[in-house]
Amino acid sequence: MTQMPRACGGDPRSIQIRMYVRKLPSWSKRDDPSAKDEISVQDFDWRKAGDLR
Q1: How far is Cα 50 from Cα 30, in angstroms, rounded to an integer?
Q2: In degrees to the nearest 10, what's the CA dihedral of 11, 53, 19, 26?
Q3: Which regions in the chain score pLDDT beneath 50?
Q4: pTM for this one?
Q5: Facing residues of 37 across strands?
Q6: What is the pLDDT of residue 23?
């Protein structure tokens, strides 16, 4: 909240956090072009902005 003071006119009511996790291939497969990164996304529930301070 302190990083975005101008968001929502400086008075956000609620916030939702989205987390991205990038799982890289094992070190032994780092040069293997068929090895793929795995990306997962998790959205957390909406929370009142004041609860996160």
Answers
A1: 43
A2: 150
A3: none
A4: 0.61
A5: none
A6: 94
